[in-house]
């Protein structure tokens, strides 16, 4: 019998969910979302549980995102409803974890991308380490920064979030803390002791302030130094403040230095359609609740699954026929019209919208 894809452990008043697909960098599939939802619902109503931890199995990843390859394969085989249902349940889980009464603590050790960012950053406590490596590379697979990425990226001061969303740029653990995406920075080797301390604190750790103090007591030099995202902060803020992707490209072309050329090269690998959808989502998310952003995300992803979009082509080139060049359609930014982008944001038919029934979904937006 194979091990469960999410392991649930309760010990000393602390409930721990372990994402258990290390061979796939703990990427989320439909079964894992279902298991997580069941654990969190049960634990949050259990009077014996003081706080909840989520972490990844193995040394390489917290969670490298959702299993988008499975979604595309399902859609291509005529099971679009199954692919859409995966995103529906994933987004609902993200909303619900933001509403938990118990403190929810993500130990973000290793790779965290896409759906993994959704599971962690939308929660109350996000503990990064020197091994953390964050990215939202969705434009490179013809998707967009879903899982409320538009909300948490737009909350980063300046235009770092826009840069990350459009280029797929990466952040280390220290940079996650600096950006406000992580609440604490702890050495990776200290994470087992963090769990021991949370159990030892007993019922006191029902109080978020007590959890915060315990996590802070483990903070130290996690060996993470700033990279070019911060070295080029002034240039990023100047070039990525525009409200059209064309203006961002033009600003980089005017600068013309090596960093600008490298950034342009990264941008040109992405889907023009996805980049325009992503930029609009980022600008629209400012000041919105988590609930509102997830509803918009669901509208967009439904249209991407149903097509036409670049989602299937991007996944084919990147994850199925690995290393091949995607054939984006439209090919250029100029061919992507406002009307095309409008289509992805339009309300769904009656009864098809994402139904988020547990509260307003604002807690997770408080970075």
Describe the structure in your own words:
This protein is α/β, with parallel strands linked by helices. Helix content is about 45%, strand content about 10%. The protein contains 17 helices and ten strands. The strands form two sheets. The chain has a six-stranded mixed beta sheet with strand order 1-2-3-5-7-10, with helices on both faces. A four-stranded mixed beta sheet has the order 4-6-8-9. It is globular. Residues about 360-365 have low confidence and may be disordered.
Brief characterization of the structure:
This protein is α/β, with parallel strands linked by helices and 367 residues long. It has helices at 30-44, 68-76, 80-97, 115-121, 149-154, 160-167, 173-179, 191-200, 208-216, 228-231, 233-239, 245-255, 258-267, 272-285, 290-306, 311-320, 338-345; strands at 6-11, 14-19, 51-56, 61-63, 104-108, 111-113, 125-128, 133-135, 170-172, 184-185.
